[in-house]
Write a structure and sequence with these properties.
single chain; 380 residues; alpha+beta; Fumarylacetoacetate hydrolase, domain 2; twelve-stranded mixed sheet; five-stranded mixed sheet
Amino acid sequence: MTADWFATGCFVGRVWRDAVDGPSLVTVREGAVIDITSREVPTVRDLLELDDPVAYAHSTQGSAIADAAALLATGRTDGVRLLAPIDLQAVKACGVTFVRSMLERVIEERAAGDPAAASAIRESLSAIIGGNLSGVVPGSAQAREVKALLIKEKLWSQYLEVGIGPDAEVFTKAQVLSAVGHGAEIGIHPASHWNNPEPEIVLVVDAEGRTRGATLGNDVNLRDVEGRSALLLGKAKDNNASCAVGPLIRLFDEAYGIEDVRQAELVLEVEGTDGFTLEGRSSMREISRDPLDLVAQAIGPNHQYPDGLALFLGTMFAPVQDRGEKGQGFTHRIGDVVAISSEGLGLLRNTVRPSDECAPWRFGVSHLMRNLARRGLLTA
């Protein structure tokens, strides 16, 4: 990842400005962060609903408020702090969209959330299934045949259903405005003792279902909580500071679009205060459902989002490297620094803390509306 990865492409995002005691819409031009908030476009939501958001980001004069390299290095400079680059969008996520993560969800389920039991189950399941599911198109005739075979072998699972069945898993990851940005602490529920980061690409979609851009996300996963019961998905996924998005949205234009997302490679690095390091890669080429198919399953005639949505596309990354005792696999420790990067989208870095020790979420939709009104940025 080059230091000036933001030099090409059209990037937009959000920052908190002490000078205005509130959030501002920004873009990056010639190495500077430019505040382009206006009465016509006070939010990211309003920008993405424009016919040509790229033209607005390029042409609106605005004012320089920070050096881009300095801000994107740590997430903050004097009086300016990066926020998640989404605001009024619903935050949705797709699960088990990669074969590797699908099999790990099956293992979690069979282990009932016990990491000590996972190693033996992983070995026996891999011996039976192996990589034979990697070429199966979800919802196809072949997928139905595989399902019948697995049922016969008593290996069927609800995770295999959404992995190779016709319907994708689409769930609510976080509440509107609750996501944290680059440089912030990311929260792990203190009740969890088996968990991991999930590096993902996040598509940003407008109210009409048009995919307007992409960014990076960390869909933190509590493996023991979800493994006990899939009905605990809400507790496993939606906790204080448990969703990180950023650093910026790259708007789709002639230089970057959905095909670049389909070919993207994500790199994950975890550095612990105990000296532990973990590296992993996730290739979007291995996703089992096309990104635009996932968008179509999330928004359409049966489900509208008048303020658009941010959609996590899932990950193939499910770490099994032992961090402590053999067979215990990976889990986070307090102070882990998680870095997710991808060429063209930048770097999202966060530090792990218990969710009840992260800064509490206190700035919701009502606070945003009052803040914008006080600054004269709301129009009828």
